[in-house]
Amino acid sequence: xxxxxxxxxxxxxxxxxxxxxxxxxxxxxxxxxxxxxxxxxxxxxxxxxxxxxxxxxxxxxxxxxxxxxxxxxxxxxxxxxxxxxxxxxxxxxxxxxxxxxxxxxxxxxxxxxxxxxxxxxxxxxxxxxxxxxxxxxxxxxxxxxxxxxxxxxxxxxxxxxxxxxxxxxxxxxxxxxxxxxxxxxxxx
Length: 188
Prior knowledge:
Blueprint: H1 10-21, H2 34-45, E1 50-57, H3 59-62, H4 67-77, E2 80-87, H5 94-100, E3 113-120, E4 128-133, H6 140-149, E5 158-160
Parallel strand pairs: 2-4
Antiparallel strand pairs: 1-3, 2-3, 4-5
Helix pairs in contact: 1-2
């Protein structure tokens, strides 16, 4: 509300506008949340051989809003990206909600959670994206146990190749871009 406005971060927000927003096809205003600001800030400061690791909602890997972030981190900023999807999205329903199961934060939040490792390697070209997810139907306690018991080197990551719209998971082959538009996205 008006009495509780978000703090502005002019330099970070300008960098978000120049990078994530400039490369996005989605709604531009939602990219200025604190998680995106952290990622932008950290990406601009990590060493030529360094890692940015963070835990946040898993919408970074599948929401249209974050397509510009996915494009930037994969095409221009990092050489390897590892994602551990802990699921737990309570905004789903039916069978999918049951598969998502418990949230790793003991159901105190309603969004799915993922752990991200973005690796920058000096003098290495390109980026490889690796994804793994916990099993379906796990409780919050079982997901915590998974994180506690697993060694990173033992995780089975799937190599992900993004589609043309910078989607990393839930890839669907379609020809929507070649179809005749019914309405224009341009504001007149």
